[in-house]
Structure formats: structure tokens, C-alpha cells
Amino acid sequence: MRRQRLTAILLAATMFIMTGCSSATSGVGKTEDQSVSAPVAGDVSGEAVEDESEEGLEQGELMAAPELTFTAETIDRYSDDGEVWLLHVEYDEVTVFGEGYEALAEGVGAWNEARLDDILADTEYYAEEAASYVEMSVEGNYRDYNYFDYTRTLQPKRVDSKVVSLLEYMADYAGGAHGNYGYKSVTFDAQTGAQLTLQDIVKDMGSFRKEATAYMIDKVYEDYGEGLFPDYADTLEEMWQYDQAWYLDAAGLTFVFEPYYLGPYAMGSVEVTLPLNDFVQYLEEDYVIPGAGGYVQLPLNEDIPLILPLSSHMENILQIKSSYNDHFGMAEVSVKLNDSETEMEMFGWLMNAYLVNTGMYSYIIMDADYASDDYVTIVYDVSTGVVRETDRLGGVCIVTERMYGDRMELSTRLDVLGTYRGVKTYTIDTKSGKLQTEDEFYQIDRTGVSPGMLTRLDMSVFINGEQTNLPEGSRISVTGTDDEGIALFLNVDTGEEGEIHYVRGDGAEDDWTIHINGIPEQDYFEEYLPYAG
């Protein structure tokens, strides 16, 4: 019965999308990139939603998904004498763009301002704690001091014309053997900008809680077994009294439990998805029916119903299949859509998978790690109900906090004046399904990176295109590189930006060490360069 009801909901949504698309014939099949806009969110009957504003959408005109931009911000705190790096803070700020999403932009903006106040208050707290820790270290109570850090980054889970659902990763290190991390979440109605609670998306909360609790108790035991705390079932029964993190994704409603909640720290965080097939009767159709365009995270080993206007199937069911092979110590992964399935591949682990909708076209973007930092990002075109690989890039992985749908940032390892993570922005070409970039330089991901390296020699550099001299005693930070002979830098003290031109190797036996003006890189800096290992 539930599966029949889910099929009926998806069929209604499919008819809505196809009706909406057919009403805008001037845009279909005529654009150079073959893409079309997404339908107006509203009545599933296929009728356009009326807009009272003078600049509202015309009858039959289609509405795209909102665009979210995440801006990375950092704060650093030092001791009063400037000699000790006390605290490093990283956080995201999110901004909403898109015609028709002014209410969403206002709602997200207000939430973002309140969140920033919390981050700044936490920054002052951690800075004071770090200063006290340093003082005790000087007195000999602690052997060493490592700077404290505090992180709050946002991971988009579903962004379309109906829903914006974000998971916030929160982590800190404030001394001790290891740091701690946890999660918060927020979900917005994309049309009104209102924050949604569970009560807004769930019908018959009493029955839902009972069935959801039973499902999660069985599911976490199936996945984690004896590794769970003995009282894990009681904890799940009591979770409804607290503000538990949750988000909407492609398969349904997912709850996130931080370390120590259901098991020891080594077990990590636990995510449990309540699949639509089992819980559709409890969820409001306004939020179950996928909105137009956008992107959504794909959970593993769950049946995911898809609306694919170009598919000949009345009902499309996707599954990202992943199972651990004990013999090889690897994850076996394949993508199955209807009767089409990719060949099984072996990875160290599958990291992320997203469904990206660009008008009539749909793509799966997923990344995996064969071994340590041996990444690959793969693109599959699933628009017609058949899985077809269109691109594969080795050495790069998705930056989950910088996923914007058909535009995303991919990260790679760089060894230029130190070991860093560098990112470039890529888009999906809708003609070929391939990833493409116009970025010449990788931008350095500043996560965990020292605020600067002190030079001990004069260095010839380029500022504003002119060759000049960077004096001894300058503190610089590497901000980017083309990985082919140019490193971008920031003079931390003056704010000036420039380029360091380098050559890798000395032309003889050494083919790895970077040379600047014929001098090995390590001769230029007071401290050891921050290379991994």
C-alpha cells in the first residue's frame, strides 16, 4: 500500500513537471546547452501558480531552483605579545540568490546573522581557554601546546524549489588526546523562507515516532551490532525530547547522531535514513515531492525514487549500492537505475554521492578514495533512466561545503611550498556531461594551515606584474598555485598579494624540491615548510 501511494505521488509530480515543461515550448530543445528551466513549485495538477506581484511569473513560465553560495571565513587569535597562535576558527556564511526567492534569502539571512553571533561568542570563549592553556604550559603543567581550533561548516543536503536542507558540522579541539565534533541542522521552506520543524513535515506524529523508533533500533543494530552502547535502544526512544539533527535527502528523512550518542567515539557519527517506501504516509506531500532543479545528497543502499522527464519508465528507482568486502578490505560499489547497472568497482570507501538536476537533465556526481588521498570523482548521466558514465577525474574529490548543483568545487593535494588542499570550481557541461573549469589557479584550502611562514632571505617576487624584492623577515601565506611554476602568496603583515615563480627539481638528481631563483625552498624560511609527513 505504501509503495502504491509513493508511486502515485511520484506519478503526479512527473505529470506536473512534464506539463509545466510542455507549456514553455519556446525554451525546450532550442538553447545551446540543451537545458531548460525547472517547473514552478505549487499545485501538482500542473497549473501554474499565480503571482500577485507585477513582476511575477507569467502563466506557464518555469521557475529555477535557488542558488546557494557558501563563503568560507576564518578568525585567528594570538597571545598579547603576538608570539603564540592561540586559536584558529573556520566557518561558512550562506547567501541565497535567485528570482522569486526573496523570502528565502531573508529567512536564511536572519538565521545566518543569529548563527554568526553564536560563532563570535564561542570564539571569545575558546580564545580565553587557549590563553589559559598556554599560561599553564609555560608553568610546566603541560608538555606542549597545540593551537585550539573551532569549525562550523555547512553541508547542503537538498536544495530545490521546495526545500533547502542543511547539515552543520561542528568541531573543536581544546586540548587533550583528540577533538570533538557534532551536528546541527536547519531546513527551510524554499517558497516562504520559514524554518521547518519535524511537526511541519510529519503527519500523525505519535504513530510516526513509534514506527520510526522501531525502525532505527533495528537499523543501527544491523549496521553496528555489538559496537553500540547497551542502552542504545532507550536512547533512541528518548531522542524525541531533544533537538536532534535531521535533514531531507533523496531517499526521505535522515537523522544524524554524533559520537558518544549511540556508541563510543571510535564508532563515529551515525546516520539513519527513514526511507520513503516505509514512511511516505507520514510525510507531507509538499516536501516529499521533489522540487524543481537543484541537487540532493544520495544515501547508500536505499531505494531512491526519481522524477526523470526524459525516461521512458513511469517509475524510476535508483540505488547506490555499497558493501564491504572483507577479503579485499575494500568497498564494492555500483550504481543501479531501473534495469541498468554499472559494473562493480572496488574503493577504499565511497565518500559522497549527489543527484544534480539541470533542467530536463539529471546527473549523479560521486567521489571515492581508492587508498589514502587516491581520489576519483565520477559523473553519470541518468536523464533517460539509464546509467551512463560521462566523465572521471582522478586525484580530485568533492568539497561538500562547496557543492552548488551543476557548479561545485573539487579538491586535490598540492605540494608547493608545503602540502595543502587546493580547489578549483567545475561545472557540468550539459552537452557532454563532462566536468570543466575555467580556473587557472588552485585556491588553497586554509583548513589547518599555519597563518604564515617567515622568510630569512630576500626573495625576488612579482607584485602587480612587476618584479620586486620581498625583504627578509616577511611573513607570507601561500594562497594558490597553478602547480606548474607559480605560487600565489599573501604578505600577512602588509596585505600585499603577489606571485613566487619556482622550478621543481635542480635538473640533476633532485626532481622534487622546489627552487626559487636557483635556491632550494627550505633555505628561504625560518621554520620547516609544512609538508605532510
Question: What would you say this structure looks like, in words?
Answer:
Helix 4 (205-224) packs antiparallel against helix 5 (232-238). The radius of gyration is 25 Å and the shape is globular. It has 533 residues and is of the alpha+beta class. The strands form six sheets. Strands 1, 2, 3, 4, 5, 9, 15, 16, 17 and 18 form a ten-stranded mixed beta sheet that branches. Strands 19, 20, 21, 22, 23, 24, 27, 28 and 29 form a nine-stranded antiparallel beta sheet that branches. The chain has four domains: 1-63, no CATH class; 70-293, Heat Shock Protein 90 (2-Layer Sandwich), CATH 3.30.565.40; 298-411, no CATH class; 453-524, no CATH class. The chain has seven helices and 32 strands. Strand 20 and strand 21 (419-428) form a beta hairpin. The relative contact order is 0.09. It has helices at 2-22, 102-138, 198-201, 205-224, 232-238, 276-279, 285-288, and strands at residues 67-78, 85-97, 148-159, 163-173, 180-189, 245-248, 252-257, 270-275, 294-297, 304-306, 316-325, 330-337, 340-341, 345-347, 349-358, 361-369, 375-381, 388-394, 397-403, 407-415, 419-428, 435-436, 442-445, 453-454, 459-463, 466-470, 475-481, 486-491, 497-501, 503-504, 514-516, 519-520. The protein is 18% helix and 39% strand.
